C-alpha cells in the first residue's frame, strides 16, 4: 500500500519552489493562490532568504502550496492513505479531498498568522532531542517544564517551551540522548502557548464545507484514521496546541501494510524518519520535479 505524506514547518529552504514553477501551468496556479490569500508565494519560494521564509505566517502557506503543486504532477496516483506532519496535515486534507485547494490555503494562511501572533506573547522555541529512551526523554522534558511537542519516532523528540526552559535543556540533556539541536522556528508550536491561535482557527473553520476523505486520512493526534471531513477539520484546529504523534502515524502505516512512501515537496524529513522506523519500505522524497519520475517508478513497482 502506498502512503503519501506532507512535511511540516522547517522543511522549507531558500529557492526550493523555483524548479516547480517551471512546470506547465504551475506559475499561473501559484499566482492565483497568491492573489487569493494576499501573499506572494512565488516571491517567497524563489527569492526570499532563510530568515524571511522562517516567518511562520509565510512558511506555512508556502509549504502547503508547494505540496499541492507537487501532488498535482503525480498524474493521478492514488495512495491508500495520506498524512501530514503538523501544517502538512492541511496539505494531506486537501489531497484527500476534505478541503478544496483554495480553502486549504485560506485556512493555512489564518493558521500561520494566528500562530505567529501567539508566538509573540512569550519568547519561546523548539529543540530536537536525538536518541535516548522515549519515556526517559519525555520525563526529563516534563521535569524542566517543557512539552514533548513532536514525538517523531526513530529516536527523535522535539521539545517546546520558553527560551529559559530550552536553555536548561541544552545544559542538561536527557540521560542516554546523543544531542540537543535548537530548531529554526519562531515559537513553541503544539503547546499551550498556541491557545490564541486555536480560537482564530475555530472561527475560520466555520466558513469551511469539508467533505469526507476519499482515502484513509491518518491524524497527528493519535495516529488513527479519521472517517469524516468534520472530524478532520476539528482535529486540524485543535492540533495547533497539542503534540504531534508522528510515531503513532508511522505505526499505523505499518499496520496498514505500507509498501511505499512518497513525500511531497519539499521532501526529505519524513522519508528520513521512515527509513529508520519503517526499515525496508521504499520511499521517494519529492525535492525537485526531477524526482517525479522516480515516484512514478515506485508506484509502478508496487502494482506489478
UniProtKB/TrEMBL annotation:
EC number(s) on record?
Answer: 2.3.1.39
Q: Where is the Malonyl-CoA:ACP transacylase (MAT) domain?
A: 5-304
Show the catalytic activity: holo-[ACP] + malonyl-CoA = malonyl-[ACP] + CoA
One GO BP:
fatty acid biosynthetic process
State the pathway, as annotated in the record. Answer: Lipid metabolism; fatty acid biosynthesis
Q: Could you confirm whether the keyword Lipid metabolism appears in this record?
A: yes
Q: List the GO cellular component terms.
A: cytosol
Q: What are the alphabetically sorted keywords of the record?
A: Acyltransferase, Fatty acid biosynthesis, Fatty acid metabolism, Lipid biosynthesis, Lipid metabolism, Transferase
Indicate yes or no for the key word 4Fe-4S. no
Against PANTHER family, the record matches this protein to: MALONYL-COA-ACYL CARRIER PROTEIN TRANSACYLASE, MITOCHONDRIAL (PTHR42681:SF1)
Q: What is the protein name stated in its UniProt record?
A: Malonyl CoA-acyl carrier protein transacylase
Which species is the source of this protein? Answer: Streptomyces venezuelae
